Amino acid sequence: MFLSELTAEQKRALLVLARQVIAADERLAFQELERLEALYHEADLPPETPDAPDVVADLNYMFPSARARAVVVLELLMVALADASVDRRELRAVRAIAEAMEVSEADWEAMRDWAGRYAALVAEARAFGQA
Predict the structure, then answer these.
(1) What is the pLDDT of residues 60-103, one digit of tens each?
(2) From residue 101, how far is each of 42, 66, 69 by CA, in Å?
(3) At 84, which CATH number?
(4) What pTM was computed for the model?
(5) How far is it, in rounded angstroms, from Cα 119 to Cα 84?
């Protein structure tokens, strides 16, 4: 959704974080893979190879602005909500990333609320014409 606001390096870091969120519940859902593929496509980056980095060092250095941090948290929440099942482990993983980036509690709550509403609207839109 908002990846155009990030640099190429920030996009790569976001994708590493997205893979970490997906792995948090030790279960791989098809919808999560679809969301991850969509992120790669939107980022205009090829999929990772097995030897690709799987850790992002200093999140505050990588995402120095409040806007970049908001983009990351919102995108990660959408990954966590991709399978229409909110797993606490995935949500905790996103929350830990938000905390590491010093996202305030009020901003976290607002982003989580927005992501939930957006995910519901996406599900509703997909249902049109499915009757």
Answers:
(1) 889 999 999 999 999 999 999 888 777 899 999 999 999 999 99
(2) 23, 9, 7
(3) 1.10.3680
(4) 0.86
(5) 8
